[in-house]
């Protein structure tokens, strides 16, 4: 495997080199958190694709394909649909707002005092999202070096933390573009055709597998619907995704680049399911479906090429892990620490320190979590059940109030956690109960409390139109006792 080692070593060296270059670009808070809001179409589209297609979409997507066949594509397809809807309906508005976090948007719309609660929920979501991609590193390093899971997680996680700390969003953006190219070549151009051909093509796979592997609904209609509820809605409101939207140079670039990214995600989802289906036809006795990706790469590909495909998988994991990590750091410093009275000044250094500490925390959690899909489900259940109603209400319902948003976030989050305990993490009920309770509470409390003041709504309207860029901390706030 000397050739594989050489390819992986070059890849890792390249990522660290790009991270070091990003250090020179990250001079201000805007540079560190949103790449100076200067990305053009190609960089925006590539980095958006890279951040949403991580370990769960690659290793997890192949795992679902190995278990359910073509129907395993729906998890990643639901992510692609979320990207399409986000950029068709919301992206232009978000770019004009000139904020850094989802919490800042909520404060701007409702008049303040909501970002502490939304920040806690978003912090949990982005941290768990970082964990899922960090956890997936174990698969790659097990194939390469036969390392135990904890060692693979430590190595992969440390690389991500290092280049993320150095240059923030600039380092992450530049590495994401390289990772996007490697992932496209390794997964779509190499592994997909080799896997299908080795399994005898579609005729060969049909002869070896049950007909259910070629049904689009074999995973279960309820599961497909739940994927769309969790992941499509989750992609509409996640801090990691919004933070990438904020990097676009113009609203038009965000829209066109994002739609391109969404189509790419649909193709990637189908590819992962087909690779998993081919793996089942070739190796039906794999002990754990989680190892399907590593098995087909290890057994089918020659040295060197195998290293490139493993680098592609590392790319998928690292791009999502780094994007989620910088989002978690941004939420921590902008939404949580500021509410504790942290003074301004030294913001880049503060974000670097937060990124480092949170990265180490994610590595530690990943060492004790053993299922990438379940970890991702926890993250998205909390996000969608806790925040979706308040965020959509902010964008589309003027009668929504700060008190209604605050109460809905608390009630929805508690409901999700409660039903995870009652019915289990992998149950469908937590997300539905969270959304239902959150919606009822939001409507009831908003209608029972005074309307948001015209002054606050006028500032919101001007910001949405791009006519005003008043710093969020300088706007009028509603009295906390209202």
From TrEMBL:
Read off the Gene3D superfamilies from this record. Sodium/glucose cotransporter
Protein's UniProt keywords contain Transport: yes
Database matches in PROSITE patterns: NA_SOLUT_SYMP_2, NA_SOLUT_SYMP_3
Provide this UniProt record's keywords sorted from A to Z: Cell membrane, Membrane, Transmembrane, Transmembrane helix, Transport
Q: Where in the cell is it found?
A: Membrane
Q: Does the record bear Membrane in its keywords?
A: yes
**Organism encoding this protein:** Amycolatopsis bullii
The primary site where this protein sits is: membrane
The name on file for this protein is Solute:Na+ symporter, SSS family protein
The UniProt similarity line reads: Belongs to the sodium:solute symporter (SSF) (TC 2.A.21) family.
Name of a matching Pfam family: SSF
Transmembrane ranges? 6-23, 44-66, 72-95, 116-141, 147-168, 180-201, 213-237, 258-283, 308-332, 353-369, 375-397, 404-425, 431-449
How the protein sits in the membrane?
Multi-pass membrane protein
